[in-house]
């Protein structure tokens, strides 16, 4: 694959995670009716949360990709994602659906982790940051299009057909992957035994640069998880404007895509380290303003509230390619293991942070901006205390 095709293909691999969530958000109301859940419940976000929780399996797939190569793990991920997607669509109870959603998340994790490892096999530093920004820019058009697609499908048929769309897309991407060549030469494969695993994990976890910027990405992803999981609940149940959900979700997605695209220029001009320091300060200031507004007006106008959320998530998507590049900068041949730890941490722990925000959100809207403010403050400490040697 040449660079443009590689970038597009990598974005489509990551889209599997996004489309596995975003397309079904408009269907949450119908799912609540189908499974006889209370209309005011925020229980449907667990359909998102367990999918994110499946990312923990990256800890298994990462070392396997260092041992056997990237392509075998990529194809295992496609298989799990497709089978689980079909099974979730045909589930006759919420618990069964959640189990298959977890399996689907595991499949998505294998694809996602392998994609980052392959990018790291080819690039590092600011070049990786620019490449990841391009991938994220394409990837982030999913939140723009997916809710409208999900809503359109619902006008003609049921939520089950909405759930069938992601595995169908995965089949197409899996066929496309046949053009991809292995990026990890056999000479660089790591033997899979307890000693080699211990060395690989120790090498990665002892890297302060990796741990610091993985923590930054994890905290920021907690904010994204909270928004994605509760966006339909916020618009439909709190603001009671369900008809505006797709437009609001798409608009926020456009701002996020714009943030990732702007970073392709910022990283090239100023470098990942300077960009991430400046943006994290701006993020914290905006979160503080949104918190203050929501504190003074418990339910601010919907346009004002979601403008603040959009700005925060747009900045978030300018930060994350840089934190990814800085975290993966010095992991060497253990890119698969590093990618698995990185992906598991920010998906799994980030999802838990999002779930914590979701738990308290049912009581007050103020929890959302408070969560973003705390995330910004902790990220500011992590970024500003990094030494020159670490970055």
Structural commentary:
The protein is mostly helical. It has helices at residues 3-22, 28-34, 46-53, 58-68, 70-89, 94-122, 125-139, 142-156, 159-176, 194-205, 208-238, 245-270, 272-296, 302-327, 335-361, 367-384. The chain is globular. The model has no long low-confidence stretch (mean pLDDT 85).
Write a concise synopsis of the structure shown.
This protein has helices at 3-22, 28-34, 46-53, 58-68, 70-89, 94-122, 125-139, 142-156, 159-176, 194-205, 208-238, 245-270, 272-296, 302-327, 335-361, 367-384. The chain is mostly helical and 391 residues long. α4 (58-68) packs antiparallel against α15 and α5 runs antiparallel to α6 (94-122).
Q: Roughly what fraction of the amino acids lie in strands?
A: under 5%
Question: Mind describing the biggest β-sheet?
Answer: none
The topology string of helices and strands comes to: HHHHHHHHHHHHHHHH
Number of DSSP strand runs = 0
Separation of termini?
31 Å
Determine Rg (CA atoms, Å). Answer: 20 Å
How much helix, percentage-wise, in residues? Answer: over 70%
Q: Residue-averaged pLDDT, rounded?
A: 85
| Content-based structural category | mainly alpha
What are the SSEs and their pairings?
Elements: H1 3-22, H2 28-34, H3 46-53, H4 58-68, H5 70-89, H6 94-122, H7 125-139, H8 142-156, H9 159-176, H10 194-205, H11 208-238, H12 245-270, H13 272-296, H14 302-327, H15 335-361, H16 367-384
Helix pairs in contact: 1-6, 1-7, 1-8, 1-9, 3-6, 3-15, 4-5, 4-6, 4-15, 5-6, 5-9, 6-15, 7-12, 7-14, 8-12, 11-14, 11-15, 11-16, 12-13, 12-14, 13-14, 13-16
